[in-house]
Amino acid sequence: MAHARKILIVDDDGDLRATLSEQLGGHVDFAARCARSAAEAEAALGSDRPDLVILALSLPDRDGLVLVRSLRAEGFSGPVIVLNRAGAPEDEVVAALEAGANDCVSKPFRFAVLLARIRAHLRQHDGSEDAALQVGTFTFKPSAKLLVTERGSRLRLTEKETAILRFLYRAGPQVVSRDVLLREVWGYNSNITTHTLETHIYRLRQKIEDDPAHARVLVTDAGGYRLIA
Description:
Blueprint: E1 5-10, H1 14-25, E2 30-35, H2 38-47, E3 52-56, H3 64-73, E4 80-84, H4 90-99, E5 103-106, H5 111-126, E6 133-135, E7 138-141, E8 146-148, E9 154-156, H6 159-171, E10 176-177, H7 178-186, H8 194-208, E11 218-221, E12 224-227
Parallel strand pairs: 1-2, 1-3, 3-4, 4-5
Antiparallel strand pairs: 6-7, 7-8, 8-9, 10-12, 11-12
Helix pairs in contact: 6-7
């Protein structure tokens, strides 16, 4: 099971918020949070940054396009999917994309369509330069091979360290065996042993653990390793 991706739903339609939240909650890889206004959305972003935002263009306190621009100006790099009204003119879609939205879905829509787009945009973002994942107290940037501390200090990762962290992150709380990690990170290379993997795990712990001898983030469990969020 992967880490639950946090989805923020911003819409003043209570029924739609409740429906989307329930439908997303039916998938173990998503955790939904709702806001009914731009102000509530900004408060939510400030307290617990989501992986993806779904927002309506029509909000009670601010135009949705203004909110999209504000999110981008404040550094939110995750995907933004705009929900626009049925029959909206093409200019409205163009304006949303130019404001910084990644996609537009017209109401009414089938949940399966929205879900497919959510997954597609998250996959694309995970492979982009902007991807930023939370690992312990660090922000993990796979494309840049970096760990960034809460104070902004940067720790450089090797290519293998990056691949190990990325694979464990995607596995969520599930234990990943040593054999699986060796296969996924190094490929089918008979010259690579578990000692090589253990050396990389040791070096990673030196970087991400407060006390590497008593790991609390990258832990050994049941013949393998897992990340604890």
